[in-house]
Amino acid sequence: MDNQELTPANIKINDKVIEHLLKFGESIELDSSSFIFRENDDTDDVYIIIEGQVEVLTTDYKDSLVRIALLDKGSIFGEMSIFLKNSRSASIRTTVKSTLLKMNKKQFLEALTKIPAFTLNLMNILTTRLFTMNKRFVNLTHYKINMAIAFFMKNELILKKVPNPIKLNPKEVAEKVGLDFNEFLKGLMYFEREKIIINLNTDDILNVTFGLISDKLDEFIEKTAYQKI
Q1: Residue 164 domain-assigned?
Q2: Which value, to the nearest 10 degrees, does the dihedral of the CA atoms of residues 222, 223, 226, 227 take?
Q3: pLDDT tens across 210-222, in order?
Q4: Are residues 14 and 93 in the same domain?
Q5: Residue 206: domain span
Q6: Are 110 and 143 part of one and the same domain?
Q7: What global pTM score does this model have?
Q8: What pLDDT digit, counting tens, does each position of 32-42 carry?
Q9: Same domain, yes or no, for 108 and 202?
């Protein structure tokens, strides 16, 4: 998924609203590569980018930081910690020297009550963000299912040289890889469409058979494992 899809595209806090908001918070300047907050921090300040750019980062399964979005002038971030009363769901770091408007919880809520244009602006942003987050969640769910099955087939079938045709019990395998029964079956059908497995036979739902093409499985893992979701 393109990074642009993860941000509220074309919907920003406009300049006139920012001018009013400066009365409720403070302007701060940060050098490039400065962390504003980190994932799981227990803070609830809200930020709007006046000038510059930041990146949204999350931690992958290797405990490495992965960029999931870029935000630039007029973008707001950090407000969900106030609405949901939870810790930070991602890390934010500047990519260039940046100027930000920082508001604490009290200042942010006061601004919402006193600047109707800000409230409307924010509602539009949150609505768009919710839509793109739902799309991303669906993509991420499919990704996790397919990768769980792919690594199972690689580690338990290819590397252990299980010959074709392969016979397995989907219910037992699904439990082993942390999927439910239907997710596993849908995953097998996906791999058949991608021609990674062939001659899939599900007539006996607890005794499925298929042929596995190892080269195509390797291509799939290499192509998919590190893609941005």
Answers
A1: yes
A2: 180
A3: 999 999 998 888 7
A4: yes
A5: 138-224
A6: no
A7: 0.57
A8: 999 999 998 98
A9: no
